[in-house]
Design goal:
single chain; 467 residues; alpha/beta; Aconitase, domain 3; Aconitase, Domain 2; five-stranded parallel beta sheet; binds 3-isopropylmalic acid; binds iron/sulfur cluster; amino-acid biosynthesis
């Protein structure tokens, strides 16, 4: 048998029917649901009097609109309606919901894996672009639109077309102070936000193998920011150790059998990819985005780039526009950029390891006077509880951070956590688009360590030297 890529293996295992033009009906194992993209889907089912095909495949939670200061009441009417509608729909369709206030509630891409709902070999969908996160478990996972949410609910299948395969290999080990987030930003800086368009990206190599499951999730989370529909990492002992004992993971009796299968979930030696990119971990530094796209990224030791040095007219104009929006002047050293707010959270970087890393940086120090708000928003109730059990909340509070309830929060500001126009924020999230964190807000994407250090210094700092 010819050598197969991991993507091929996952794809082939789920084909229900393939048309001659390549259009494929794919079986879906796990359907994650949140309040933003599910209301019309449930409504469609209701109107069409169609039941769920396999309601047990669905795990639902409220995340985008949940308030983070208290979780007792939602003041914003639209937010409240979305969250309440989800609860009503889950109740009438008999869907498992982890609602606001439940310890297991959280950002769908944090709480899902935490519950073991994402397992190697699965197809996983969610009406959310960052579903690529789940590819860290050697699962074929991608975001879908609301009408597709309804289709999956009604049929347990999705109409899809095969992606091309791109393998990004990161050789060597990561230098001190360099995290999975920096790897993600480095790759996007290298291949561009369109570099992965039409591809499923498999991340491979020693540096990737060396990442924890949390780091792998951070990386796959941002595959979508490189233009790819899915990110993938082969399953190994790190994957299995993370999953063991989680509520949705196979029971002890079936565990051995599952692991035997999961061990086959990697690209075979000699498998051929449509495209290959090889990078060296040694060249990766702590990174900061300077513009309004995740590919606009530089080393923290670098400076704001100068559009005048860019020969490509389109690129130059987009750089100029980004600099105006960001209120930055070309050639300013990144460490001279001072900040107004710091956000540690989002499905990219709000897991326990992220919070531990940030807490280690802030311990015994205090947030700088120019920082109006530094906030930590754990990715789930269980992450929050774990952090509190370890005393991390106290470290953050004593340093002057706010310690919040879980949710998407200021990653996109669907709740009340937003930047005001002109405010500049160091954020551990994944998108720095114009207005992403609030109209006129300016976002710089960084790792949790870098965000924590920036909160203490009041401006960006190289964590390798100063902390
Ligand atoms: C609201 C949701 C549909 C959206 C997404 O698809 O990614 C959001 O999570 C985001 O990060 O922009
Ligand atoms: S944390 Fe941000 S990126 Fe992740 S699902 Fe929520 S809004 Fe989207």
């Amino acid at each position: 048998m010819t050598a197969q890529t991991l993507y091929d293996k996952l794809w082939r295992a789920h084909v229900v029917r393939e048309e001659s033009d390549g259009t494929t009906l794919l079986y879906i194992d796990r359907h994650l649901v949140h309040e933003v993209t599910s209301p019309q889907a449930f409504e469609g089912l209701t109107l069409g009097e169609r039941p769920l095909w396999r309601g047990q495949s669905i795990v639902a939670t409220a995340d985008h609109n949940t308030p983070t200061v208290t979780q007792t009441e939602i003041h914003d009417l639209v937010s409240r309606l979305q969250v309440e509608t989800l609860s009503q729909n889950c109740q009438s369709f008999g869907v498992t919901l982890y609602p606001m206030g439940d310890r297991r509630q959280g950002i769908v891409h944090v709480m899902g894996p935490e519950q073991g709902a994402t397992l190697p070999g699965m197809t996983v969908v969610c009406g959310d672009s960052h579903t690529s996160t789940h590819g860290a478990f050697a699962a074929l996972a991608f975001g879908i639109g609301t009408s597709e949410v309804e289709h999956v609910m009604a049929t347990q299948t999705l109409v899809a077309r095969r992606s091309r395969t791109l393998r990004v290999t990161v050789d060597g080990t990561l230098p001190e102070g360099v995290t999975a987030k920096d790897v993600a930003l480095y790759i996007i800086g290298h291949i561009g936000t369109a570099g992965g368009t039409g591809y499923a990206i498999e991340f491979a190599g020693e540096a990737i193998r060396g990442l924890s499951m949390e780091g792998r999730m951070t990386l796959c989370n941002m595959a979508i920011e490189a233009g790819a529909r899915a990110g993938l990492i082969g399953a190994d002992d790190v994957t299995f150790a993370y999953l063991k004992g989680r509520p949705y993971a196979p029971s002890d009796a079936q565990w051995g059998q599952a692991v035997t299968y999961w061990r086959t979930l990697h690209s075979d030696e000699g498998a051929v990819f449509d495209k290959e990119v090889t990078l060296s971990a040694q060249h990766i530094e702590p990174l900061v985005t300077w513009g309004t796209s995740p590919e606009m990224v530089v080393s923290v030791t670098g400076q704001v780039p100068d559009p005048r040095l860019e020969k490509d007219l389109v690129r130059r104009q987009s750089m100029e526009r980004a600099l105006i929006y960001m209120g930055l002047i070309a050639n300013t050293p990144m460490i001279r950029i001072s900040l107004d707010k710091v956000f540690i959270g989002s499905c990219t970087n709000s897991r326990i390891e992220d919070l531990r890393a940030a807490a280690a940086v802030v311990k015994g120090k205090h947030v700088a006077a120019n920082i109006k708000l530094a906030m930590v928003v754990p990715g789930s109730g269980l992450v929050k509880a774990q952090a509190e059990a370890e005393g991390l909340d106290q470290i953050f509070l004593e340093a002057g951070f706010e310690w919040r309830h879980p949710g998407c929060s200021m990653c996109l500001g669907m709740n009340e956590d937003r930047l005001s126009p002109g405010e500049r924020c160091a954020s551990t999230s994944n998108r720095n688009f114009e207005g992403r964190q609030g109209t006129g807000g300016r976002t710089h994407l960084v790792s949790p360590q870098m965000a924590a250090a920036a909160a203490i210094a009041g401006h960006f700092v190289d964590i390798r030297e100063n902390f």
